[in-house]
Structures are given as C-alpha cells and as structure tokens.
C-alpha cells in the first residue's frame, strides 16, 4: 500500500467561524424578511385607507351640495379593517370654492393617508 498525502480535517476554530458566518447571514435574512412583511402590511393599510378617503370625497361630490365649513369624524370598514377618518372643510380666498381634506387613521391613531380636493359652489 502506498501512503497518500496527509489529509487534514477542519479544526474546531474553523468550524466555529463558519457557524458564526452562517448565524450572522441567517439573522440578517430574518430581519430583512420581517421588514418586508411589515412594509407589505403597511402598504395594504394605506391602500385600504386611501379607498376610504376617496369614497368619502366621492360621496361628498355626489351629494351635489356646497359643503359647509367645519370638521367631522367618520368611520370606514374596508378589507376587514376599521379606519377612523376626519373630514375638514375650509374656505378658500374665492368664496365659490371650498377646500376639503380627508385624513385617515389606523386603530393605533397613526395617520395613514391624506387626500385633498377643491369643490366648486356651482356645477356645470
């Protein structure tokens, strides 16, 4: 029998370094996937809140009345979630127009979206 070149195995230090590298890589991957899930949930909430705000502004336009100045609260259920909204009507320098802002909040009270429009007194 011929003796071949001496074969060396990995030392304990090399194995520990490799495990540390793998652990750091997996930790980074878990953090990135958690951030992705959070961003996806935030996007879904923002989209549903935007639908609520748009529905409120569309309902105001469909009433065909010139809105009176002031604030009002409303709630909206969209995509299985409940959102709280604030409708603010403000005068403009031209008395024939009003600025209307709708701001939507989630259940924690964080602002999700704000939509604004200007409504005319007269419809053509």
From TrEMBL:
What region holds the Type II secretion system protein GspI C-terminal domain? Answer: 43-118
**What does the UniProt record tell us about how this protein is modified after translation?**
Cleaved by prepilin peptidase.
Where is the protein situated, by its record's location annotation? Cell inner membrane
Cell inner membrane as a keyword of this entry, yes or no, is yes
Q: Could you name the domain of life of the organism this protein comes from?
A: Bacteria
Q: Which Gene3D superfamilies match?
A: GSPII I/J protein-like
**Gene Ontology biological process terms from the UniProt entry:** protein secretion by the type II secretion system
Keyword terms: Cell inner membrane, Cell membrane, Membrane, Methylation, Transmembrane, Transmembrane helix
One Pfam family linked to the record = T2SSI
Which PROSITE patterns does this UniProt record tie to the protein?
PROKAR_NTER_METHYL
Q: Which GO terms describe its cellular component?
A: plasma membrane; type II protein secretion system complex
Give the residue spans that cross the bilayer: none
User: Membrane topology for this entry?
Assistant: Single-pass membrane protein
- Subunit composition and interactions: Type II secretion is composed of four main components: the outer membrane complex, the inner membrane complex, the cytoplasmic secretion ATPase and the periplasm-spanning pseudopilus.
Entry similarity comment: Belongs to the GSP I family.
**Its job:** Component of the type II secretion system required for the energy-dependent secretion of extracellular factors such as proteases and toxins from the periplasm.
* Entries under PANTHER family matching the protein: TYPE II SECRETION SYSTEM PROTEIN I-RELATED
Name it: Type II secretion system protein I
Q: Which species does this protein come from?
A: Sphaerotilus hippei
What taxonomic classification does the UniProt entry list for its organism?
Answer: Bacteria, Pseudomonadati, Pseudomonadota, Betaproteobacteria, Burkholderiales
């Amino acid at each position: 029998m011929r003796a071949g070149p001496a074969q060396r195995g990995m030392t304990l230090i090399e194995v520990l370094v490799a495990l540390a590298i793998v652990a750091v890589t997996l930790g980074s991957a878990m953090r990135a996937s958690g951030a992705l899930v959070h961003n996806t949930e935030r996007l879904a909430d923002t989209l549903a809140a935007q639908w609520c705000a748009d529905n409120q502004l569309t309902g105001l336009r469909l009433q065909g009345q010139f809105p009176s100045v002031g604030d009002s609260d409303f709630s909206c259920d969209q995509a299985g979630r409940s959102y709280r909204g604030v409708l603010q009507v403000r005068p403009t320098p031209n008395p024939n127009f009003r600025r209307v802002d709708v701001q939507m909040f989630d259940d924690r009270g964080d602002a999700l979206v704000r939509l604004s429009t200007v409504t005319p007194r007269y419809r053509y």
